[in-house]
Amino acid sequence: MTSNFSFKMAFTTKNCISGDFYFENDTGFLYCLYIFFSHRQVFMKLSSWTKTEDETRHTIAAAFVNARLNGGCVLEYPANMPSDLDEAYAIQDDAIKLWPQEIVGWKVGGLSEIYAAQYGTDRLTGPVFKHMFKDISGQSDAPSVEMKVLSEGFAAVEAEIVIIVAQDAPADKQDWSREDAQSMVGSFHAGIEIASSPFAGINEFGPLVTISDFGNNYGLILGPEIDATASDFGEMGLTTYVDDEKVGTGSPANLSGGPLESFRKLLEISSKRGLPLKKGMAVTTGALTGIHPVKAGQSSRIEFGEGIILQCHFVKA
User: Fold this and answer.
1) Prediction pTM value
2) Ramachandran region of residue 274, left (φ > 0), alpha (ψ -120 to 50) or beta?
3) Domains of the chain: total
4) Which range marks the domain in which residue 65 is found?
5) Considering only CA atoms, which of 303, 281, 290 is closest in space to residue 162?
6) Main-chain dihedrals φ then ψ at residue 262, nearest 5 degrees
7) CATH number, residue 116
8) Would 2 be classed as within a structural domain?
């Protein structure tokens, strides 16, 4: 028997697609079209799909991972969007398993009051992978750092306080006090997070979608150590510039509970996921001056108080 397949697909650029990925043949079985990009070529794989939750999660994770690895974009969310935190982090877990690089740090982002009330938490997390991590903490006069962005999706720059983990977190410890978290702080640093996703609408559908794509992280610059304690960060003023235009100001006091609270929440979240923090990991703690959109070809400068300046410029991934 010959099966007739019908599906819609539109190629908008060499790395971007849109359309219906699921279709039926005349036997009634559902199939999924997996699409893999490698430079200028597109590879397609057809396989039967029963629409289980595991398969749905894996399809979403694979779509984001493939687009990220090839500098492509995802025009539409690959399947049904996650409905709760567990599902969102399960997608992220699947994507972590597919990623070819090790995790060297984590980002922590904030949720609005409305979403915090809805989901019972005011923080979200995502991994930082080795090849996206730039350590210039030992350079007294650091040059501008080249950072890649997914220019056909979403990209932004964020001013951050970064915490270096002092020691491995106990795998069986899931409840963390502020005092416990403080004991895990090795050092505080000035830093920059590059937020970028192949899905341009990453921030338009709430935190669950953001979580599902690595928390919208695409890189971290670790700057000089800051001689400060969690209690006096509120005195530090920060200013962010994009192409020499001032786009935001702020301070660690803008964060609910400050950088230490972000770190504490990450310790709990990561432990419950079976991913306890490791010594030496770098943790961003939240955008201090805002989330500032950028694109390839632009540059940014961030001033931390009066003594530290970090600079970066953006290129297409």
Assistant:
1) 0.85
2) left
3) 1
4) 9-316
5) 281
6) -60, -45
7) 3.90.850.10
8) no
